[in-house]
Design brief:
- This protein is mainly alpha-helical.
- Helix content is about 70%, strand content about 0%.
- Bound molecules: zinc ion.
- Zinc ion (ZN) binds next to helix 7.
Length: about 200
C-alpha cells in the first residue's frame, strides 16, 4: 500500500510540474492580449540558457543579432548599413574582451598552482589550450579592429583584391571578411597548393 501511494504522489508531482506551464500559457493567450510578450520573454530566457554563446566561435555569436533588412532603394554600405556592422563588430569585440579576461585569469591561476600536482600532464595540456584560446581571441579582436577602421575609412564591405561588393549576407556571416567569396576561394586553393 505504502509503495503504491508513493508512486501515485510522485506521478502527481510530475504531472503538476509538467502541466501548469502549458495550461497557464494557454490561458494567458486566450484571456489577454498582453500574453504573447510574456510568452516571448519566457522563450527567450530558456533559449539563452540552452544555447551558450561562445564569442570565439562567430557562428555561435551570430545568433545574437538581427539580420539587416535591405530596402530596394538604399545604397550599398550607406550610413545605416555601416552602423549595423559597427554594432555587430563592437558587441562581438566586447564579448571577446570579456572572454579574454576570463582566459587570462585561468592562465594566471594555472601558472600559480602548477607544481607538484599529480595530474601535471593534463594540467599542462589545459594550460596549452588556454594559451591557444587567448591567441585565437587576440587575432579575432585585431581583425575586428581592422574592420572597424575600414568602416571609418569607407573601405568596409568591398573586396580588397578585386574591389567588388562583398555583400551584406556574406558580411553578416563573416563580419571581418575582406575578400569576396570568389577571391577568397581562389586564395584558399592557392594556399592549399603551396602548403598541401
Ligand atoms: Zn574579390
Amino acid at each position: 500500500m505504502a509503495t503504491a501511494k508513493k508512486k501515485i504522489t510522485s506521478k502527481n508531482t510530475k504531472s503538476i510540474k509538467a502541466s501548469p506551464k502549458k495550461t497557464a500559457a494557454k490561458k494567458k493567450v486566450a484571456v489577454k492580449k498582453k500574453a504573447p510578450s510574456k510568452k516571448n520573454v519566457a522563450k527567450k530566457k530558456s533559449a539563452t540558457k540552452k544555447t551558450i554563446i561562445n564569442p570565439s566561435d562567430y557562428d555561435s555569436f551570430a545568433k545574437s543579432f538581427v539580420p539587416y533588412k535591405i530596402s530596394k532603394t538604399e545604397k550599398y554600405m550607406n550610413k545605416s548599413q555601416q552602423k549595423h556592422f559597427i554594432n555587430i563588430l563592437n558587441s562581438w569585440k566586447n564579448a571577446l574582451d570579456n572572454e579574454q579576461e576570463k582566459t587570462e585569469k585561468l592562465i594566471q591561476q594555472d601558472q600559480s598552482n602548477f607544481p607538484d600536482s599529480l595530474d601535471r600532464a593534463s594540467k599542462e595540456e589545459e594550460f596549452m589550450l588556454e594559451l591557444r584560446k587567448r591567441e585565437r581571441e587576440r587575432k579575432l579582436i585585431s581583425k575586428i579592429e581592422l574592420s572597424l577602421k575600414d568602416i571609418e575609412d569607407d573601405l568596409y564591405g568591398y573586396c580588397e583584391t578585386c574591389g567588388v561588393e562583398i555583400g551584406i549576407k556574406r558580411l553578416e556571416a563573416r563580419p571581418t571578411a575582406t575578400q569576396c567569396i570568389d577571391c577568397k576561394t581562389v586564395d584558399e586553393i592557392k594556399e592549399k597548393q603551396q602548403f598541401g
